[in-house]
Design brief:
With about 575 residues, the chain is an alpha/beta fold. Strands 12-25-26-27-23-24-13 form a 7-stranded mixed sheet. A 7-stranded mixed sheet has the order 21-18-19-20-14-17-22, with no helix packed on it. It has a 4-stranded antiparallel sheet with strand order 4-5-6-7. It is elongated, with a radius of gyration of 31 Å. Bound molecules: adenosine-5'-triphosphate and magnesium ion (MG).
């Protein structure tokens, strides 16, 4: 990877890059299952689905699931459906449906019109429930939710049967249809599967299939007042769509026997559930409920706050779809929960942007340099390549004149040995321009440099240097009379702890980083940056990658830090 510090010490060894080489070429365990099925079953098709519940914005964990489901189907010539798991009218909203679709498209995946909703299946699910009643495998229970919880027992003791368990088929069918008709109050009755109250698997102890909820649904309106539970809707929706591989996260492993029980009892398409480990990324929370808490509590500026691990936040932060897909690929598929370092995600972003982002010069903490042997009226437009990694990226012209800004930190009164920047009687090259020599400076009352005086060597122009002068360091700079003032927003981790939700006794909000946002209101940049459209990404030379934010106005362009140039995690641990 390119290192843009020109002569400064480079601590970035990028050992993460080694992971690329060492990445196993072997199949992951899901691919192994699929390849075996394809070898054994004639006409077998890979058909997956991504099943979000529309109760929040998608986050980086969902990106993993999206890449897995769409990626595997793509690899084996199969299909992927988008299915909204919208069985809970309380928390679901159309706004979320739209944001989810936008995010999946942005990540680069296409469900080709196969957009389904569990709520479209409410009628079929109702018929399935009647079928189970007729088979004496489901019953209407008048027990309260507390009584049901009591009946269930505990993992170490067996449960007890409900007094309503042996109602007749006729009575159950009648009560269930009256539940649907709205004759009973919320919570007064449920439909339960009749399985085994002594099962060691708690999910098989007569799980609830339907509950009464007299609430409007974002799609079905007031057509229903009974809603299926997740476990009764999810698997059946998979079967209806003839999904061959229902990939889900590990917490559903214990639900699999119930998933299979329904398939067998209803004699429907045998979708196969396979579990994989959730993606957890350090310093990020990946729970929609907690993300909602951050938004509603005003701890961030919205779902798309650039500090949020939502897809919308990562997009606004400037992460690219390609870098997120690469990250998900590098993380791989695991069977056990683990924590992935945020540094890996940043590495993927940096690698992608190094290839694609135009270079530009911006000075975040400016100090003025006067080049005394340049005429005050003189302006020279110098050719600057846009991206040394991309020969097709072309070049632009940057104005050079008598007064320029450089970074305050690029000048030191009494520098240490390996400091190759500017100081009294020192020489540096200005990127794309000339070599300058410092012969004078002014300090302010605090002892900080307030003005630097230099001379330049006219025959040292970049690309046609005949001066023979050696300059070890190269600095970025901006011509003062052409400089545009810009606001720069620097983001740091939203949490101070790698695993803010690890300790269940503690409120994760306690670990919010009070310094997660630093605003630099008056940085200066070369003029091209002000004219760039919102969403343009740049590498500010020697600083990092930045994206022009939607908050920009003509007077004040705003740039978000996407990621620093070097791995800032090194040495932090
Ligand atoms: P949350 O805990 O954020 O509410 P969820 O699992 O309830 O997540 P869903 O909308 O039901 O959210 O998720 C859609 C799909 O994305 C599911 O298949 C789920 O297993 C998967 N998924 C959710 N979070 C992760 C994660 N961290 N890593 C991998 N897959 C995930
Ligand atoms: Mg879920």
């Amino acid at each position: 990877m390119e290192w843009d510090c020109w002569g400064l010490e480079c601590p970035n060894e990028c050992n993460i890059a080694g992971m690329e080489e060492s990445k196993k070429l072997s199949l992951n365990f899901i691919e192994e299952i699929i390849e075996q099925d394809l070898a054994e079953k004639t006409g077998w098709k890979v058909h997956t689905r991504f099943p979000p519940e529309p109760n929040g914005y998608l986050h980086i964990g969902h990106a993993k699931s999206i890449c897995l489901n769409f990626g595997i189907a793509e690899k084996y010539g199969g299909l992927t459906n988008l299915r909204f798991d919208d069985t809970n009218p309380t928390t679901e909203e159309t706004e979320y449906v739209e944001s989810i679709k936008k995010d999946i498209r942005w990540l680069g995946f296409d469900w080709e019109g196969r957009e389904f909703y569990a709520s479209d299946y409410f009628e079929i699910l109702y018929e399935y429930a009647q079928k189970l009643i007729r088979k004496r495998l489901a019953y209407v229970d008048d027990s309260t939710s507390d009584e049901i919880a009591e009946q269930k027992g505990s993992p170490t003791s067996s449960g007890i049967e409900s007094p309503y368990r042996n109602r007749s088929v006729e009575e159950n069918l009648d009560l269930f249809s009256r539940m649907r008709a709205g004759e009973f109050e919320d919570g007064s009755k449920v439909l339960r599967a009749k399985i085994d109250m002594a099962s060691p698997n708690m999910h098989l102890r007569d799980p609830v299939m339907y509950r009464i909820k007299k609430e409007s649904h974002h799609r079905t309106g007031d057509a229903w007042c009974i809603y299926p539970m997740y476990d009764f809707a999810h698997g059946q929706s998979d079967s209806i769509e003839e999904i061959t591989y229902s990939l889900c996260t590990l917490e559903f492993e214990n639900h699999r026997p119930l998933y299979d029980w329904y398939i067998e009892a209803l004699d429907i398409f045998p979708s196969r559930q396979i579990e994989f480990a959730r993606l957890n990324v350090s310093h990020m929370v990946t729970s929609k409920r907690k993300l909602l808490q951050l938004v509603e509590g005003g701890h961030v500026k919205g779902w798309d706050d650039p500090r949020m691990p939502t897809i919308a936040g990562l997009r606004r932060r400037g992460y690219t779809p390609a870098s997120i897909r690469t990250f998900c690929d590098k993380v791989g598929i695991a069977k056990r929960e683990n924590l992935i370092e945020m540094a890996l995600l940043e590495f993927c972003v940096r690698e992608d942007l190094n290839q694609t982002a135009s270079r530009a010069m911006a000075v975040l903490d400016p100090v003025k340099v006067i080049i005394e042997n340049i005429d005050p009226e003189h302006v020279e437009w110098l050719k600057a390549e846009n991206n040394p990694e991309d020969p097709d990226a072309g070049s632009r012209e940057v104005p050079f004149s008598r007064e320029i800004f450089i970074e305050r930190s690029d000048w030191m009164l009494d520098p240490p040995k390996k400091y190759f920047r500017l100081g009294p009687d020192r020489t540096v090259r200005l990127k794309h321009a000339y070599i300058i020599h410092c012969h004078d400076h002014k300090l302010n009352a605090n002892g900080n440099v307030s003005e630097i005086r230099c001379t330049y060597y006219p025959d040292s122009k970049s690309g046609s240097d005949t001066s023979g002068i050696k300059a070890k360091g190269t600095l970025h700079w901006v011509s003062t009379s052409h400089a545009r003032s810009v606001e720069v927003r620097h983001y740091h981790t939203l949490f101070t702890e790698p695993e803010p939700t690890r300790d269940e006794d503690k409120d994760f909000l306690e670990f919010l980083n009070p310094d997660s946002l630093t605003v630099i209101p008056s940085a200066v940049a070369e003029p091209a940056l002000a004219a760039a459209p919102v969403g343009s990404r740049f590498q500010f030379l020697r600083k990092g990658y930045y994206i022009k934010d939607q908050d920009s106005t003509d007077d004040c362009p705003v740039f978000n830090l996407i990621v620093e140039l070097r791995d800032s995690w090194k040495g932090k641990k």
